[in-house]
Amino acid sequence: MQKTFDDAVLEIDNIPGILDYRYQDGSSIWLSVRFDLRMINFANSSGSKDEGKKDEITKLSIIKYILLSFFNSPNLNKSYVDILSIANFEGNVEVPNAWTVFLKGLTSLKVRELLYSPHYLSFFRIKNTYSLDYFYSLARIKIKLGGYFNRNKSHVNIEKIDHFLALLKSHLCDYIREKDFINIKNQVLYIDRLSPVYYDYLSRYLKVVKPKLIVCSEGNNGDWKYAALFRAAKAEKIKTVEVQHGALGLGMRYAETMSNNPVFKDHKSDYLLTFGEYHNQSSNAAGKNIAIGNYRLQNIARNLLDNDEQKNEGILKLLLISEGIPATSINNGLIKTVLKGLKASTIKYQLIIRLHPTETSREKYQELVALNSDVSFSAGNYGDIYPLLKSSDIIIGHTSTVLFEAGYFGKKPFIYKDEVSERYMPENLGKWFSDSTMLANDIAGFKSNVPDNNLTRYFWEKGDYMDNFKAFYSSEINNQGKGVAV
User: Fold this and answer.
1) For the chain, what is the mean pLDDT?
2) CA 188 to CA 389: how far, in whole Å?
3) 195-216: per-residue pLDDT in tens?
4) Read out DSSP for 248-262?
5) Which label site among 78, 347, 374, 448 has the fewest CB atoms less than 10 Å from its CB?
6) Are 175 and 44 in contact (CB under 8 A)?
7) pLDDT of residue 147
C-alpha cells in the first residue's frame, strides 16, 4: 500500500531526538506544527476554496479585541477555584462552549472559565468568564516593544530552525508545498519569540489561582499555547483533562515511542474523558483515558427518543454530513460520490445537507441542489443535529463524530471509504461505500435501521454523565490539595 501523509508523520514521531528541537520556553517545535501540517495537507489535497484567501478581519477589530481582553483580564479575579475551564468561544452567549457546559451543573464546586476566540469574537458579557487571550495579547505587545527597542538583538536560533525544517522536508516533500514550508518557518520564528513571554504570564496566573483541575475541550492536537498551559500546570502539580469533542484522528494519535517519552507527556493533558470504550483505544495523547459519555448528546437525546414523528411514506429522508477536510474543500470525494450516486438512483428522496460550522460558501453543493426540488440546508448550532439524526432514514458521511452519534439513535450510517476514514473510523460502525454504484445500490436496497444495543454501548458510555464526571473527580482529583467534595 502506498505511503500516506499520516504514515510519514508517524515516521517523524519515531525519529530519535525529534523532541529536542525546542522553542525558547522549552516546548517542542514538532508537536506545535504537527497538526498544522495535517490541515495544510488536507487543504492541498482537497482544493480548499480558502487557499490564498486574505483574512477578512480588520486591524481595527483586532485592536478592539485586544482592548477587550485587557478589560476582561483573568487577573481581575485571582481567587481560588476548584476547576478552571479553558474553552474556545463558539459564538453563543448561552452556551459559550458546548463541550464544557456541563461544568455549570457542578454546584458544589467553584468553577471559573477562561474563554478565547480565534475569530476575535466578543464574549465579555458572560458571567464568570474572563479572557484567556489576555495573556496572548500581553505577550504580543511585549515582544513588539522589545523588538522596537532591541532591533539589533535577536534571540532566535535560525540555524536550529532551518535544520528542523530541512528534516521535515525530507519526509514531507511529497505532501507539503515549498510555500507552505515558508509559512511554517515564519510561524515557528514568531512562536519562538512569543512563547517564553506567554508561558511566563500564564504560569504566574496559575501559581496564584492554583485550581485542583483544569478542564479544556481541546488541546492535545498540539497548539503551542495549550502546550504552555499543560506544562505550566504540571509545574504547579495541577491536574489537566481534555473532554472529547470530536472524532479522534491523527492529532490525537502518536507513534508509541513518542507517546511514552516524558518530554511528550509534559506537553499533554493528564486525562482524556471520552465518549465510550472504543474511543479510549483511539488516542494515546493523554496520560489516561476514561470513558464517561457525552453530556450534550445525552441530555438532548433523552427527550427525542421518547417522541415519534410521522414520516412521508415512500420517500427516503437522507442526511448528508459535510465535514469536508477541510469543510471548504472543492475536490471533495464524499460530495462527488454522493452526487453521482443520487444521479444513478431512481428512488424518491428528500435530502438535507448539514453544513459544517466553518462553512460559509455553498458553492460545492450546487449540482446536488439541482438534482432534486426537495433539497435543503441545515446550518444550526449545538443540539439541533440530533432531531435530524432521529428523523432521517439514512445518514451519509466520512469521518465526522456525527456518524458515531447516529448509532446512539439506532441508525447505521453510510460511510464514504477512503484512506482517511478507513484508518480512523471503526469497520463495524456502519455500511461502507467507496464509489457511486455501491452507494446507489445501498440506498435502493435500504429497508430500515436495526439498532445494535451492544454496539452502541461500545461507542457510547451509558449512565448519567454528571455522575460519571463526579466519580472521576472524586477518584482521580479530590485527594489533591484544597477544595470541597463533589
Assistant:
1) 86
2) 42
3) 999 999 999 999 999 999 999 9
4) --GGG---HHHHT-H
5) 448
6) yes
7) 61
The DSSP code for 373 is: S
End-to-end CA distance of the chain: 51
Q: If you search the block for the grid coordinates 508517524, which residue do you land on?
A: 10
Contacts for 76 with CB less than 8 Å, ≥ 6 apart: 130
CA dihedral in degrees (444, 447, 453, 458; nearest 10)?
A: 0
User: Phi/psi at 243 (nearest 5 deg)?
Assistant: -95, 120
Question: What does R_g of the chain's alpha carbons equal in angstroms?
Answer: 23
User: Do residues 270 and 286 lie in contact, with contact meaning Cβ atoms separated by under 8 Å?
Assistant: yes
The cell for 53 is 484567501
Q: What is the structure's pLDDT at 151?
A: 46
Identify the pLDDT of residue 483.
45
**How far apart (Å, rounded) are the C-alpha atoms in residues 243 and 302?**
21
Using CA atoms of 9, 13, 15, 20 in order, give the dihedral in degrees to the nearest 10.
120
Q: Give every residue of the chain whose pLDDT is below 50, as ranges.
A: 49-55, 148-149, 151-153, 327-328, 382-383, 480-484
CA dist 371 → 167, 279, 317, 438 (Å): 48, 37, 15, 19
Counting runs of H as helices and runs of E as strands, what totals does the chain give?
A: 19, 13
Q: How far is residue 201's CA from residue 204's CA, in Å, rounded to a whole number?
A: 5
List, in order, residues 6 or more apart from 138 with CB less than 8 Å away: 70, 197, 201
Q: How many CA atoms lie within 13 A of 150 on its CB side?
A: 10
The SS3 call for residue 337 is helix
Q: Is the dihedral of CA 169, 173, 176, 181 positive or negative?
A: positive
**How many CA atoms, within 13 angstroms, populate the side-chain half-sphere of residue 268?**
25
**Contact criterion met (CB below 8 Å) for 69 and 131:** yes
Give pLDDT, residue 329: 55
Burial tier of 186 (Cβ tally within 10 Å: 0-12, 13-18, 19+)? exposed
